[in-house]
Amino acid sequence: xxxxxxxxxxxxxxxxxLVGYAARGLEGNLDLAEEAVQDTFRIFWxxxxxxxxxPNVRGWIVNTLKGEILNIRRTRARMANLVAxxxxxxxxxxxxxxxxxxxxxxxxxxxxPDYQLLCEFALEQRTVKELAQSRGITIPACKKRLERxxxxxxxxxxxxxxxxxLSVTSERTMKERGS
Length: 179
Description:
Elements: H1 3-25, H2 30-46, H3 48-53, H4 57-88, H5 102-105, H6 113-122, H7 128-135, H8 139-159, H9 168-176
Helix pairs in contact: 1-2, 1-4, 2-4, 4-6, 4-8, 6-8, 7-8
C-alpha cells in the first residue's frame, strides 16, 4: 500500500475514534481533540517511515495522540499560569524615582493583541482554531503569535523581582540599552 493510500485509509478508519479518545483526555473539548488528532496525523505523515516500520502502525498513531494530548495539557497549564501571574502583578506601584520611564517599567500589556490572544487561549479555553478564525489568520500564524506572547510574558516575569519592580539586573540591562 502506498503512503497516501495508507494515510487516507488509517485517517478514515481511526479519525472519529481518536477524536472521542482525545476529547476524554481534554475535558470534553472537541475543538482541542480535533486539533490533537490533526497534529497526530501531521506527525504520522512527517514520520511516515518510522511509523510504517512499526509492527503496529495503529498503536504508533495512538501513542502519538497520547503525546499530543499531554503536550496540549502542559501548554494550556503553562499559559494559564503565566496569565494568572500577570493578573496578580500590581498595576500601580509607587516608585521613588523614574529612571527609565513608565512605559519601560509598566508596559501596557492589556492592550497588546498578542497578550489578549494569550488570555483568550489560557483563561477562556478557546482553541487555536477558534482564535485563528476570529482573527482571520491561519492556524500556524496563530500558534506563532501565542508562542511569541508566551516568550514575551516569560521574559517580563523573569525581569520582575516579584514586587512589581524591575530587578537590579534588568535596570542595568535597560541602561545598557539606552532606555
